[in-house]
Design goal:
The protein is mainly alpha-helical. About 75% of the residues lie in helices and about 0% in strands. InterPro entries: Fy-3 (IPR019311).
């Protein structure tokens, strides 16, 4: 008797399933159900089900910094962050202006020497001017490369300092709910001697 009852229950359950399946299929075929909406519901249900078994992902350093930066931007420390970023941008702009001034001075020196050479007479003058121009091009490329390296190093230090500043604020906010002051003063690429004559560029000092 128990087996017959179990068999009956199983048969009725199958009938209910087939009925629901048939009704759902009819709704899909006659267009009464939005297929895209149904797929979205199924996708959300699947993701929710799978997420309960999946291990939570651990954010990497860049994600942590992005989250911290977002918090700082929308906090009372946003103005301090903006001033720090502006000081960094000004420092870079200053070094770019110095580089351009040095290169301009080198170009003007070439033009001056070329004009002097053209005023002289002699069979070797054209070759001398050509050699002078070739030397100028090589020296100019070297000087520009040195300045670009200096500026790139400055930007690298600024990124490190900005990251340290943001993360220190985030740490302070998490522990006590308050902000903190910048860890360093605005960085300036310490080029004491302008290149372009016989001097070399000093790269930024690491702090």
């Amino acid at each position: 008797l128990l087996k017959e009852l179990q068999k009956f229950i199983e048969q009725e359950r199958n009938k209910d399933f087939l009925k629901l399946y048939s009704e759902a299929l009819d709704e899909l075929t006659d267009g009464s159900v939005d297929v895209n909406e149904l797929c979205n519901h199924l996708d959300q249900a699947y993701r929710k089900h799978v997420s309960t078994y999946a291990e939570p992902s651990i954010p990497d350093d860049d994600e942590l910094f992005g989250q911290a930066y977002h918090h700082v931007v929308h906090s009372a420390d946003a103005e301090e962050l903006m001033r720090l970023e502006q000081s960094f941008a000004l420092a870079v702009s200053t070094e770019v202006d110095k580089k351009n001034a040095v290169l301009k001075r080198m170009d003007e020196e070439l033009i001056k020497n070329t004009e002097i050479g053209l005023q002289k007479l002699g069979p070797d003058i054209p070759q001398t001017i050509t050699q002078m121009q070739g030397t100028h091009i090589r020296n100019r490329e070297l000087v520009e490369s040195q300045w670009n390296s200096c500026i790139s190093e400055l930007k690298r230090i600024q990124r490190r300092e900005l990251r340290a500043f943001v993360m220190s604020i985030e740490e302070r906010r998490s522990s006590s709910g308050t902000g903190c002051e910048p860890t360093t003063q605005p960085l300036i690429c310490p080029v004491t001697d302008l290149p372009g004559t016989k001097r070399r560029i000093k790269t930024p000092k690491r702090t």
